[in-house]
Amino acid sequence: LTRLTEIERRCAENKLRMTDQRRAVIRVIAEARDHPDVEELYHRVRTVDATVSLATVYRNVKRLEKMGVLKRHEFTDGRSRYEITPARHHDHLIDVETGCIIEFRSPEIERLQVEIARRHGYQIIDHRLEIYAAPIKCSGKQQSKEKRS
Ligand SMILES: [Zn+2]
């Protein structure tokens, strides 16, 4: 099943009428491989259907979020960013210089979180891990120093 037909199926389940505008929004969402905000989605939707307004994109995104199709994130800049709710959980590493978002999955971290929660008498229902990081810039000097030790 493609992401597009999967979202269309979910919309039908939720009795959402499939208009041309909604189809354009969904198509763009299904094609996104990054974490766009509503404005970014709007610009992409406009290349598919120029009649779609920012408000329409916003409404549809909110609706899809409510349905659990989209997951909302708020990384560094306080803007809401969206991705299709992943079938398999992953966490995010955010490059604070470029805003580039890297998805990763760590079984050790997952295990450790369960352990920490249990130690405090809790069972994890959900979690969110965001690592904010700057790229390591190594000068030639530091590199040769490290090699010697
Ligand atoms: Zn993600």
What does this protein look like?
The chain has 149 residues and is an alpha+beta fold. The protein is 46% helix and 15% strand. The protein has helices spanning 3-13, 20-31, 38-48, 54-66, 107-119, 140-148; strands spanning 70-74, 80-84, 91-95, 101-104, 130-133. It has a three-stranded mixed sheet, with no helix packed on it. The N and C termini lie far apart (53 Å). The model has no long low-confidence stretch (mean pLDDT 90).
Q: Give the termini separation.
A: 53 Å
Profile the largest sheet: 3 strands, mixed
Helix content: 40-55%
What is the β-strand count? 5
How many helices in DSSP terms? Answer: 6
Based on the model shown, name its key terms.
single chain, 149 residues, alpha+beta, three-stranded mixed sheet, two-stranded antiparallel sheet, 46% helix, binds zinc ion
